[in-house]
């Protein structure tokens, strides 16, 4: 089974197919878990392995996130592993100050589709992917990017140095804000009235995963998003949004001394050593971190490879990396177990012969309207993280010392972003 990224972000919901023996557990609002301690409130999200529900913890009188794993053996094994990682995080970060999601409890839940391992996690807010969408893919101001980067680096430093764990799936979806972007629109955070038992008539026929309450919430959300689309196409201000965040989803994490999957990371955030199969460790997370920081600052993924006529997605990915970061040193290019699939013996790509080189600095200035100085400073932070030689990339600890993290924002970028909005370029990229 593949442990590489399970991402639920692109599709609307998890569909009905996997609600069968070995699959998801169907939950309804008001369902009790762990002998009535937790009461399901509404669905928060889903992945290929699990659905995640907001639940009310009747012991602590707090809301929690309940991650309910699919029941088949391979999913249960993966959950056992994830629980081990989450337990070691609890041990390694006793003060809960390292920007890593905290597990509160775990238990088994039996249902018609089998026995499901459940993890009770602290309830967090929107993912950075939602934040990027909220900004209409225009990118965040650099001082906001800095704040987020600090949290993520604190998390990575603790994971890597204290715990010896590689996350292996760092990306905007797997970093959650502590709160919601717009608390007023969040029915749970604004109303805060827990549902303590299943509402009357809650047993719906057919698709038992969507309750009336959920449908109502969805309609409301749809109306709200339609309202947004009709509004003038301006970026939404981010003043007052709490940007503290935590790293989540340890379903694919591994101890550096026992890597278990050859292919790790979600495609766009995948490090070159993973593509070339030359062995990976903590620096693979640092690569994904750099891709995430770029995406926060620009609104675009740093690399979005696609297969084409005569070349694979992998080869396109390597080509995109070299176009932005320069040629890969020959020794690295030909040094991996898969190198021969992509590179000839001179270290040139076999099927993509002509590269359009655009250094990162020019890319930021020309495509994203960065000022020369903003671009120079940001490149100074990012480029070392994107070294093709993993061992040369700075560690999270070293990165935390980088002067860019403590720079004060210049107004230049703000003005540039504004002029981009005025000429209406943002309308090209509304989702
Ligand atoms: P999977 O391993 O199945 O991908 P994740 O841990 O990524 O599961 O969780 C799936 C989704 O559930 C996330 O993308 C997020 O939307 C939501 N989620 C997960 N953990 C929390 C949490 N602690 N608080 C709020 N929402 C969460
Ligand atoms: Mg996930």
Automatic annotation (TrEMBL):
<dbReference type="InterPro" id="IPR017441">
    <property type="entry name" value="Protein_kinase_ATP_BS"/>
</dbReference>
<feature type="binding site">
    <location>
        <position position="67"/>
    </location>
    <ligand>
        <name>ATP</name>
    </ligand>
</feature>
<keyword id="KW-0418">Kinase</keyword>
<keyword id="KW-0808">Transferase</keyword>
<feature type="domain" description="Protein kinase">
    <location>
        <begin position="38"/>
        <end position="405"/>
    </location>
</feature>
<protein>
    <recommendedName>
        <fullName>non-specific serine/threonine protein kinase</fullName>
        <ecNumber>2.7.11.1</ecNumber>
    </recommendedName>
</protein>
<dbReference type="InterPro" id="IPR051334">
    <property type="entry name" value="SRPK"/>
</dbReference>
<keyword id="KW-0723">Serine/threonine-protein kinase</keyword>
<comment type="similarity">
    <text>Belongs to the protein kinase superfamily.</text>
</comment>
<dbReference type="InterPro" id="IPR011009">
    <property type="entry name" value="Kinase-like_dom_sf"/>
</dbReference>
<keyword id="KW-0547">Nucleotide-binding</keyword>
<feature type="region of interest" description="Disordered">
    <location>
        <begin position="1"/>
        <end position="23"/>
    </location>
</feature>
<dbReference type="InterPro" id="IPR000719">
    <property type="entry name" value="Prot_kinase_dom"/>
</dbReference>
<dbReference type="InterPro" id="IPR008271">
    <property type="entry name" value="Ser/Thr_kinase_AS"/>
</dbReference>
<dbReference type="Pfam" id="PF00069">
    <property type="entry name" value="Pkinase"/>
</dbReference>
<keyword id="KW-0067">ATP-binding</keyword>
